[in-house]
Structures are given as structure tokens and as C-alpha cells.
Write a structure and sequence with these properties.
Length: 392
């Protein structure tokens, strides 16, 4: 069986592949990628074009003035595509260590006036936290987006996503806000309601595009599902080799800021201090495991699984494939973990991500306690002991 991958098909809108346009690295090639990212009828082609466009932007290559003409040409013969002046564009960031993420919406004025840039800071615990709306002339939008990209590149991964996915995340943020009993920022609800005009049309009774299709072939036949599973296994094996625990993940700039709240680990901080000072590795492992089992209930595990999965998707759009695979590996381990029975709880092996996250938070808590003791001029350990005794 020939396992060599087929060469990429030229895209009909340009006659060139995404890889070819990326290799050209010219403003004209970037303009063609922008046209594809906005209007190609195939979702995979749009995602590949956005990823290539991002990589060109990292090298300082931005679309030429011919982008508007190319966008119009790309929609010719494609009744489902809209011109860029009528299409909503959405951007999302990966998660930070506290569960915050950014959503950006570029909202066109269909009468040809100034477009609106909506910035939404949301949390998967609190919902919508901050909201800001600005208006810009169409000619200034690329410059504005480049400015935001440069500002966020210091430690936040972000990328353009499907507008429908952006709207779904916006609705999720609104729902989280309501469930948290919080009030949305002023003006947010009015703008969010208007964004509903851009929601993609769906056919009544039709299954969602992402719904899995039934596999009616024989057990021995190679199917798209089986091929995908094989690729996933290869990716997981690579990720496991790179990251047998979780140190490699947390060494990446996008995950280095991930910690639990130090308040959450105060109960175990005294034991952690003693085990660390004695360099007692078995005792350290036991303290970490005890703390992780107590704190990482199913709701918390599910929250971190989602954070990892969505961060991985953004990193992949940026071309950070190894980082995406590491995040997906740990998300998969969280998804596969099953709560053991009470009598076997201490024997069950916890996912490395949970142990790594707990341990680095304990280390951070110990550093904070040391700094606070030095600041107050008291014996080191007093603060940790007080915190442990007063914690529930």
C-alpha cells in the first residue's frame, strides 16, 4: 500500500497551493492567502490559508493593496461566500493560567462605512469580564490588527478562527456570565445581539457539519476515521517522548504562567516545605498526589481539558505543531482519567498534567511564603504553618 501523502491540490481561486503561496512570501501572495482565508468554500482550505497568513505576518509580509480585488475574484461563482465588506471575522486567544481568553470580532459596515473592532476578555469561570468597541476606517484595519498581534505576541497565542466558532464561544461566555450571577459590561449585550445577524445559516433537521459519519466499511478496511486514529497515535507517541511528565509543556511560553491559586494549596504547604527541605522525594510525591486528588475534582479536570484543547487549536493555527500536540496529549489524558473507587484512590495514577500543575503551585507558594517571611522579619515557616492551620 502506498502510504506517501498525495501532493496538495492547487486551490481553484488562485491556481496555487497554500504552501506555494507561503513559499513566495510576497505581499501579492499574502493577498491571495487573505482572499482564501475569507472566502474559500472549503473549511480546511480556509484554516490552512489563515495559518500561512499568520506565518507570513510573523516575517513582516502583509497583504498588498490588491487584496480587495482578489477577494472579489474569489467569490465569483461561489454563492455562499460574502465579500470581505459583508463578512464577520473572528479571532481568539489561547487560555492564560487563570482561565481567561480574548475574543476579537471585526464587524463590517455593510454600507461601506467604518468597521468595528470588538474586544472581549472572558473567563471560563466568571464569563465576560471586559468589553471594548472601536471603529476604524477599512484602510486602517490591517495596521490595527498587526498592532494587536505585536502586543499579544509576548506570551499570548491568538489566531483567526471561523466566525461561526467565534459566535459560539461568545454565546458560551454569555451563558457563563449568567450562571456566575454577574452583570455584563455596559453596552456588551446590545452589540452581542447585533452580532447574531452574522450567524451562519443552518438547514432545519440537518446534522451539524462536525457530526461524525457512520463507518459502514469492514473492520479490516482503511477508513478516514482509522487513518485519523493512526495519526493521533503517532502524535501522542511523539508528544509522550517529548514530555514524559509535564515539564516540557510548562516550559513553553504559553503554558509557563499556568498555576493554581496558592490559596488552594495552603493546606499542604507545611508538609511540602518539610519534604522539600529534607529533599525527601517520596514524601514530596505523596504530598503532590494528595493535594491533586483533593483539588482536581471532575469539574476542574473538565475545565482544564477544555483549556488545553482550545489552546492547542490556536497553537496549531499559528504553526506551533509540537506545542499543540503536547497540549492535546495532556487533554487526552485528562479525558481518559476515571475516578477510582474510594478504596483504590491512593493507588490510582493521576495524569501528569495534574501532578505537574499542583507541584509547580506548591513551589510557587513556598517562594511566596519565604518572601513574606523575609519581608515581615519572622522565622521562615511561620507563615506556612499559620496558613496550614487556618485552612479548612
Amino acid at each position: 500500500m502506498n502510504t506517501e501523502p498525495s501532493p496538495p491540490e492547487p486551490l481553484p481561486e488562485t491556481g496555487k497551493t497554500v504552501d506555494a503561496l507561503l513559499a513566495e512570501a510576497t505581499p501579492e501572495a499574502a493577498a491571495q492567502l487573505l482572499a482564501l482565508a475569507e472566502n474559500a468554500p472549503d473549511k480546511a482550505a480556509r484554516k490552512a490559508a489563515r495559518a500561512a497568513l499568520y506565518r507570513l505576518g510573523q516575517r513582516g509580509v502583509t497583504p498588498a493593496e490588491t487584496a480587495a480585488r482578489l477577494r472579489a475574484a474569489a467569490t465569483t461563482g461561489n454563492p455562499q461566500a460574502r465579500d470581505a465588506t459583508e463578512r464577520l471575522r473572528a479571532y481568539a486567544s489561547a487560555f492564560d493560567g487563570e482561565g481567561n481568553y480574548l475574543l476579537f470580532f471585526l464587524v463590517p459596515d455593510r454600507d461601506g462605512g467604518h468597521s468595528s473592532l470588538l474586544q472581549i476578555l472572558s473567563s471560563d469561570i466568571l464569563g465576560v469580564r471586559e468589553f471594548r468597541a472601536q471603529r476604524f476606517a477599512p484602510r486602517d484595519l490591517n495596521e490595527i490588527l498587526d498592532w494587536y498581534r505585536r502586543q499579544l505576541e509576548t506570551g499570548t497565542a491568538w489566531a483567526e478562527i471561523e466566525s461561526g466558532e467565534g459566535l459560539a464561544r461568545l454565546e458560551e461566555a454569555r451563558r457563563t456570565t449568567r450562571e456566575a450571577g454577574r452583570v455584563s459590561p455596559p453596552g456588551f449585550l446590545d452589540v452581542a445581539a447585533r452580532l447574531g445577524d452574522f450567524a451562519p445559516a443552518t438547514t432545519p433537521g440537518a446534522p451539524p457539519a462536525s457530526a461524525a459519519q457512520a463507518d459502514t466499511t469492514g473492520d479490516d478496511a482503511e477508513t478516514p476515521t482509522k487513518r485519523a486514529d493512526a495519526e493521533t497515535e503517532k502524535a501522542d507517541a511523539l508528544a509522550a517522548a517529548l514530555d514524559p511528565a509535564s515539564a516540557a509543556l510548562f516550559a513553553l511560553p504559553w503554558f509557563e504562567p499556568w498555576f493554581l491559586s496558592v490559596q488552594d494549596v495552603l493546606l499542604w504547604l507545611l508538609d511540602w516545605r518539610k519534604a522539600s527541605e529534607a529533599n525527601d522525594a517520596p514524601r514530596q510525591a505523596q504530598v503532590v498526589a494528595d493535594a491533586a486528588r483533593e483539588m482536581m475534582i471532575s469539574e476542574v479536570r473538565a475545565r482544564y481539558q477544555t483549556r488545553l484543547e482550545r489552546s492547542a487549536a490556536i497553537l496549531r493555527l499559528r504553526g506551533e505543531e509540537n506545542a499543540a500536540r503536547l497540549a492535546e496529549l495532556h487533554a487526552g489524558q485528562l479525558a481518559a482519567y476515571r475516578e477510582p473507587s474510594e478504596e483504590k484512590a491512593e493507588e490510582a495514577e493521576l495524569p501528569p498534567f495534574l501532578l505537574g500543575l499542583t507541584r509547580r503551585t506548591l513551589d510557587a507558594g513556598l517562594e511566596i511564603a519565604r518572601a513574606e517571611a523575609e519581608k515581615q522579619g519572622v522565622k521562615f515557616g511561620t507563615i506556612a504553618e499559620a496558613g496550614s492551620e487556618t485552612s479548612p
